Amino acid sequence: STMNVRFLDQNISRLNRVGTTVASRLILLNIRTVADLLFHFPFRYEDYSSVCGISALTAGQVATVQAQIVSIASRSGFRSVRSLTEAYISDGQGTMKVIWFNQPYLARVLKKGDRLSFSGKVSNSRGELCFTNPNYEKIVALENTIHTGGILPVYALTANVTQKQMRFLMSQALQNVSELEEYLPDHILQNYNLILLSDALKKIHFPKNFTDVELALRRLKFDELFLLQLQNVLSRKELEKYYAPAISFQKELISHYVRSLPFELTGDQKKVSWRILQDIEKTRPMNRLIQGDVGSGKTVVASLAILS
């Protein structure tokens, strides 16, 4: 739709919480519009899909926990410039420690009694189970959490832009993506088992499982190859508009040259040479690339073309 094209073409600064400063940082990632943002794909994922009870956790495990803050406080580390924010969380069955470094504001943002989803790697801190610098998100509606639980996208970043910011912006950009006009016809989608482009963008950024990732990649890779092929076809069509003088096939001269060679031409060399000689007889410019390994005979093919 026309409205959606305008949305996709909007400057990134139009999104909520993107000021001119953040927009100028995103330009370093070649992200200027909402469309640019949507096509900035994750380069890997963190799998936090297993929601666990605290009592079932073990050190070394990567997991998501849904729990309530029992206590939280910030302090300066002993003999260190680093600050430490320390919390204890409980899910009713077990209690564990959470530590964040250099984020003293968290003690103001997060309060005792807040219910959150925490995701990260479980460690052992002085005999206690502990999350260090975990991803966290206040639980409002579980299905809307984008920073914890499930499979978390990890993006290429630039200075002073965080993963959390990038995920938040991506979730905003995706709100209108269903209006993205599908350009592939239904029969192509069915024949090649491809999902809609709008669905592929949703699944590549916030997959529910790794099957989602595979379905998204299949569609996005198809598009990339299809558009390259389309560009090649258009280039060939454009080339056909131009005139080139026809060069007639010099049968006797070519035959004499081939007989004088100290070796026999291979089947492939003959086939490629014949195609070139047919091409240059036409009144349209030839556009060919000879590809082959070292020693495969590209030079002798080129010499036959030059001789004509």
Computed Rg: 30 Å
**Which parts are unreliable, with pLDDT below 50 for 5 consecutive residues or more?**
none
Biggest sheet, in brief?
5 strands, mixed, barrel
Mean pLDDT figure: 85
The helix-strand sequence is HHHEEEEHEEEEHHHHHHH
What is the 3D shape? Answer: elongated
Task: Give the helix/strand class.
Answer: alpha+beta
Helix content range: 25-40%
Count the strands?
8
Q: Strands across the major sheet, in which order?
A: 2-3-4-6-5
Total count of helical runs of at least 4 residues: 11
Q: What features would you describe in this structure?
A:
This protein is α+β, with helices and mostly antiparallel strands and about 300 residues long. About 35% of the residues lie in helices and about 20% in strands. The chain is built from eleven helices and eight strands. The two termini are about 55 Å apart. The mean pLDDT is about 85.
List the main descriptive attributes of the protein structure presented here:
5-stranded mixed barrel, alpha+beta, two-stranded antiparallel sheet, 308 residues, elongated, 8 strands
Detail the topology: elements first, then pairings.
Layout: H1 2-9, H2 20-27, H3 34-38, E1 44-48, E2 62-76, E3 83-90, E4 95-101, H4 106-109, E5 115-125, E6 128-132, E7 135-138, E8 150-154, H5 163-173, H6 186-191, H7 197-205, H8 210-239, H9 251-260, H10 267-279, H11 298-307
Parallel strand pairs: 4-6
Antiparallel strand pairs: 1-8, 2-3, 2-5, 3-4, 5-6, 5-7
